[in-house]
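Sat 14:20. Reprocessing the chain from the morning session after the first attempt stalled halfway. Input below, unchanged.
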Amino acid sequence: MVLKVNPEDKNHPENEEIRRKYGISGYPAIVFLSSKGDLISSNAGFRPPDQFSELMNKTLKEENELKRLRAEIQKNPNDLKINVDLAMIYIKRGNLERGQTLVDKIQELDPSNQFRVLPQVYAEMALAHVNQGNIVEGQALLDKVLALDLKDESTYLSKLHVSFGLFYGQNAEKRGNEDYFQKAEKHFNTVIQKYPQSKLYEGAQLYLGITYAIQEKKQMAISLLEKLSSHTKDAYIQERADHILETLKKQAE
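Finished this time. Tokens:
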């Protein structure tokens, strides 16, 4: 069955709950669900027929992998790798109840983090909580990742900080909470200062510049975005930075 939903339709506010439940951050988006309504995958952007076919095949492959892991865990319930792989699938799909059950099992199997899997699992769970707006639960898990993964061997920390920064920045005006802006700045600055090799390094600079601009910290925004625009090789980031700079400079005239 195919269902088309317009989350921006003000006559159907329940669609906003669908958007939040399945972690949809932009439109259009293609979401595949199981017959029980569980998320299989959420995919941003329009897909022409050939790409849509590829997406369907990829989704079917992932669903078959899930079925295989379910069968394997019945035979080997204490296999750490199977528990981790299955947990990551459920967590990425937003099924945090099943994911948490597996996380508890992983903690039982590797209580001292000997096999270095807990930071990755905690990080994915933290991202899922933030995507669903559960910032308190997400923060508690971020703290666990930071305690176990000081050197960012899981490579999740920059992604976590950017995700937290975006949550606080996007919700600051909605909730009228000035403290949220400061928290957003802190998370973006953490990526800039600690993870310069991260793929999200320039993205964090762009988001920080936007956060400054929203708060009317125009000179700070201009200074940061000018530097970013002069050295970035990412066409999208440069376009966004230049557009914001143009707007800020016109306002300053």
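The radius of gyration is 20 Å.
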